[in-house]
Amino acid sequence: MTDSVYLQDIPLEDAWKIFRTELEKRGLWSVLEVEEVPLDQKAAGRILVEPAIAVRPSPHYHASAMDGFAVRAADTLGAMASNPLILTQPGQMQYVDTGDPLPVWADAVIPIENVEALKDPQTLAAEKDARLASLIRIRAGVTPWSHVRPVGEDIVTSQLILASGTRLRPADLGAAAAGGLSNLRVAKKPRVAILPTGSELVEIGAEAGRGEITEFNSMVLAAQVDEWGGEGVRYPVTVDDFDLICRCIQEAVDQSDLVLVNAGSSAGSEDFTARAIEKLGRVYVHGVAVRPGHPVIIGFVPRSIGSAPTLEVPVIGVPGYPVSAALTGEIFIEPLVRRWLGMGEPQPQVVKARLTRKVNSSAGDDDYLRVVIGEVNHQLLAAPLSRGAGVTTSLSKADGIVIIPRHIQGLEAGETVDVRLYKPESELKQTIFAIGSHDMTLDVLAQALSVYRRRLVSSNVGSLGGLIALARGEAHFAGSHLLDPETGEYNLSYIRKYLHGTPVRLFDWVGRTQGLVVVRGNPSKIKGIADLWREDLSFINRQRGSGTRVLLDDAIRRLGKTARGIRGYEREEYTHLGVAAAVQSGRADCGLAVQAAASALDLDFIPLFAERYQLVIPVQNMATGLLDPIFTLMRDSKFKSEIAKMPGYDTRNMGNEIEWTEST
Amino acid sequence: MTDSVYLQDIPLEDAWKIFRTELEKRGLWSVLEVEEVPLDQKAAGRILVEPAIAVRPSPHYHASAMDGFAVRAADTLGAMASNPLILTQPGQMQYVDTGDPLPVWADAVIPIENVEALKDPQTLAAEKDARLASLIRIRAGVTPWSHVRPVGEDIVTSQLILASGTRLRPADLGAAAAGGLSNLRVAKKPRVAILPTGSELVEIGAEAGRGEITEFNSMVLAAQVDEWGGEGVRYPVTVDDFDLICRCIQEAVDQSDLVLVNAGSSAGSEDFTARAIEKLGRVYVHGVAVRPGHPVIIGFVPRSIGSAPTLEVPVIGVPGYPVSAALTGEIFIEPLVRRWLGMGEPQPQVVKARLTRKVNSSAGDDDYLRVVIGEVNHQLLAAPLSRGAGVTTSLSKADGIVIIPRHIQGLEAGETVDVRLYKPESELKQTIFAIGSHDMTLDVLAQALSVYRRRLVSSNVGSLGGLIALARGEAHFAGSHLLDPETGEYNLSYIRKYLHGTPVRLFDWVGRTQGLVVVRGNPSKIKGIADLWREDLSFINRQRGSGTRVLLDDAIRRLGKTARGIRGYEREEYTHLGVAAAVQSGRADCGLAVQAAASALDLDFIPLFAERYQLVIPVQNMATGLLDPIFTLMRDSKFKSEIAKMPGYDTRNMGNEIEWTEST
């Protein structure tokens, strides 16, 4: 076992085979422990490990199923409309409420609405309140056991009420109680210790300086374990000190059923986890060919306390990147926790969806691609999210996962893929896919739409990319601000060129101010586009096809120049905020973006252009009602004023439809 | 408002319209209250009521994305395989681990695997551990910002991370923490008080005598409320005392956001709920045309404490039958709790399935039919469960609900229905539909199959009904013991008659002993079938089409008699345990059933017949693998001995296939 590089980059199935074999050897591939819980003390959600067998019938006595009169069916024989029969209390009839036990002499019930209460000739009472009658008249007989819930109608003693493996739902608790049970035997919740390690880690809420990282993986892992039915226990952060890490792992092993050591599992200089496990026990897997997730470690460490034979506790080294950590949870920890609870393999719901863009995948790795799902024109689409292992939002936004097997080098746009869902399928239909140009107001729209139970998912592919995506039926609408320098019009000439065959409607969204974003105080004294060729300046650009890029290139042309000589022209960001962040962090001195982006990051701004940002909506997408809330919002003065409050935005024309024809 | 009968049996939509109007009037049709929770303290599962906006970028510094050397990209220009370049520390390069901040002078990282560490001519050290090198050789240049995670790659300050209405998943907590948040504003869990009322109620675990009922509805309702995100609080049972009930309701109203009063809501003599609400506040709905569930009461009661204006708390009278109570929860309480949490309407997943049998429905009521779902021959089937409002097992077994609207009088067998699922669709495919004859060993099989993640759902329609159901493709297998008196063979002549066109295979399951079930000590001294005509005896029969009925009728015929004169011949039970329970509870003196049923209920048994119980399996159902565990179990000696332990069973031939041909 080397301690510096993860050499054994083995396939996922092989890693699981080794893990499972080692678990089985130690008797750890089955229900961990059984405990008895009282039904009425949070038994819901627990997993039954022994069948629930009725010890009592339900009902446990013959019960009246109606409010009415208990009778002997034989006494009612012959009663007819034309030949009514009078029954008297006591002896022939007795009033019973629903649920009351049948008198021992009775074998049927006549519902109260089928009797006439007679005035008792002796007391002259009770004609009005039938329940108090001592004489009733009936005009039809009843068969034995009618309107009676006989003993065992619901449950018979010795009957199987719930099979083992059942995850107890509220109604299951009721059925068990009806069968006379007051306790159930369920799987103990496995205790999973989570140890964050790393001198660079700081707690949530504490200031994180340069090189310091807020430690939240342990929170995510603990929440995952809780969600899967275990008990996630977070340990304090351990600094990079080999002996200390060894002591903490041993302590956790002595207290837990499973130990997760987070971070320190890459091949970097702080990689102590594998060495620590190897010192305390044994490492079986170091590195798994799965992406993201690679540097997973699987080992076992014996308890230092407790009875012989010594129990060896599985210890998993979980990679430090947040996405890798969470996926390692799903891949290695969820199946084990479920097994320990007596549940089967996870059975995620799988749907088929069409991939919206090409993705590459490194051969040799099983690749876990996060995707967002939406339905456009009766077709489920899967839009790939950022691949980066550090991009936490890719997990948070994900509706599901596409697994690209390691023998495949990638997937083409338009391919049908299987998506393992994180959410119920019904929620996916509420997703609105926005594509095209990025604008800050889309976040405001996303939040406002959430009130209407719509989720807005924006892909920032630039205005032109958005129109092309619409033509391919890959989004519900596109935001676009493509200026035609010839006509001064926005979008129309591009729509005619790229969207013939796809009837669309065009609506004004916002007017907005574009300009150069510079750091506070504008120390380089940048005045406009003409400064971009200065040798002391570096620029950050937007990607090709974005409306902002078109704007820049047009401005360059109008100056009679070319992009040659602009330092950083080839460096591309995909959003206005990305440009602003690049300026803020010193990666560039300036970039072209909307005013609100500069303002959001407290930067200075040199206003240059006023432009129109419009929504392009295919006619067919307007029929489903999905987009209705957008139209409601475009007329909503509160929403409009919220946007107008943002610097550089103008909502005067919001919602105006642009009339146009195919021919120019 | 009368207090004795629920006159206003109004349609469900009308009831909801009134309820919603009254909630809106009181400002109770929106998020109830907001609270701030620390991310790391069980925020998972809570519902966000304000958008989570990033207050910090992620990463918050330019971080190395690899283990390697931080460099200035410009310094690496021109490096080629044929023209390597040497970089020195300090000044030109510096080792960085993944996640380390880039030195301020650097703008790119060269991964460690792309460099050669050189021996430092001065110290002669470091060639082996590249990380310590002070001289490295590179053979390719890098572009600016390569292998760097720039500030804001994941999240930019001011970006929307999570929209309001999000139910927080573990990964969402990570994204919020990455965006610099440590608290989130979520909806307060509504406190829902549940008051069981009724002098007949006893606690779970206590002995329930005749006329007493174990109170578990409050447990089920509380578990439901918890599951929906509220906080269910059970109050002690209140006896039927009007003033006491009023006091308890007022106390609950003063402490809670919603009060459920369970039982006492029917029109029976213990109906105090409506009167109590009317006395303390006002009743708006009394009786809803939904089945089961009818006697729902909706009212509002003002708090007796707290500030002006007085808050009026909704109080719902929940019917006492367990199934009605749980469905009332789903129909009235879940949507309200969700609304208070800021979530949308419940969106159950809906699947289309074919109904296995005809159901009647009373016109005028929306009927909530519980069904079990399974897939037979690529077709989803919905098998209706017992309709009784007291049948708790019908809710526990249910995979979903079919709503039969009130203008429809019923549904035909074979009709396609929409089923609102309680479970993920993926779990439904693990259901094995057994149909036909009831046998006690099917419970043992059900439990054993649960280990294989199969759920066995048995419909006891009798042997003949089972064969007919197989012909219609409505089950995976049928248990059958139809004796052909002519040949002495089991099942074959019936299979030839009813299943031509459906190729099936036939397997021995168990040999079993049938006989008369009588109470302990056999006080009536019953000896055999010939006694059934005695005038002092009552009999309980099995339903027409059951193998046991065929057996009885054959025995009657062999005695040269007819059924005429057997008291109770027309009273039918659907299971062996049902027959035994009828004898145990005194509804009959004897009945024909298997020995194990008598034994389960501690009754005496007069053995009369040995018979063969076999499994009939359509060939097409054997191809999917679903039934494989049944074949594994038929060869499993532990399973066989478990069955053989039950009285009257013989497993010697279990799993033997009966060879047969279509022609006789």
Walk me through this protein's architecture.
- The structure is a homodimer of 664-residue chains.
- Chain A is α/β, with parallel strands linked by helices.
- Chain A has 17 helices and 37 strands.
- In chain A, the strands form 10 sheets. In chain A, strands 29, 30, 31, 32, 33, 34, 35, 36 and 37 form a 9-stranded mixed sheet that branches. Chain A has a 6-stranded mixed sheet with strand order 16-13-17-21-20-18, sandwiched between helices. Chain A has a 5-stranded mixed barrel with strand order 22-25-24-26-28.
- In chain A, strand 24 (366-376) and strand 25 form a beta hairpin.
- In chain A, helix 4 (217-227) runs parallel beside helix 7 (322-340).
- Residues 1-7 of chain A have low confidence and may be disordered.
Q: Please state the overall shape of chain A, judged from the principal axes of the Cα atoms.
A: flat
Computed CA radius of gyration of chain A, to the nearest angstrom = 35 Å
Structural class of chain A: alpha/beta
* E-strand count of chain A: 37
Poorly predicted tracts of residues of chain A: 1-7
Helix fraction of chain A? 10-25%
Quick tags:
27% strand, flat, six-stranded mixed sheet, homodimer, alpha/beta, disordered N terminus
Please render the helix and strand layout as text:
The structure is a homodimer of 664-residue chains.
Chain A: H1 12-25, E1 34-38, E2 52-53, E3 63-64, E4 68-71, H2 73-76, E5 85-88, E6 93-96, E7 108-111, E8 115-117, E9 135-138, E10 148-149, E11 160-162, H3 170-178, E12 183-187, E13 191-196, E14 201-202, E15 213-214, H4 217-227, E16 231-234, H5 242-255, E17 258-262, H6 273-280, E18 282-286, E19 290-291, E20 297-302, E21 312-318, H7 322-340, E22 350-355, E23 359-360, E24 366-376, E25 379-384, H8 392-397, E26 400-404, E27 410-411, E28 416-421, H9 425-428, E29 431-436, H10 441-450, E30 455-460, H11 462-471, E31 477-480, H12 492-498, E32 504-518, E33 539-542, H13 547-558, E34 572-573, H14 576-584, E35 590-594, H15 595-600, E36 604-618, H16 628-634, H17 637-644, E37 649-650
Parallel strand pairs in A: 13-16, 13-17, 14-15, 17-21, 19-24, 22-25, 29-30, 29-31, 33-34, 33-35
Antiparallel strand pairs in A: 1-12, 2-11, 3-10, 4-6, 4-7, 5-9, 8-9, 18-20, 20-21, 22-28, 23-27, 24-25, 24-26, 26-28, 31-36, 32-35, 32-36, 32-37
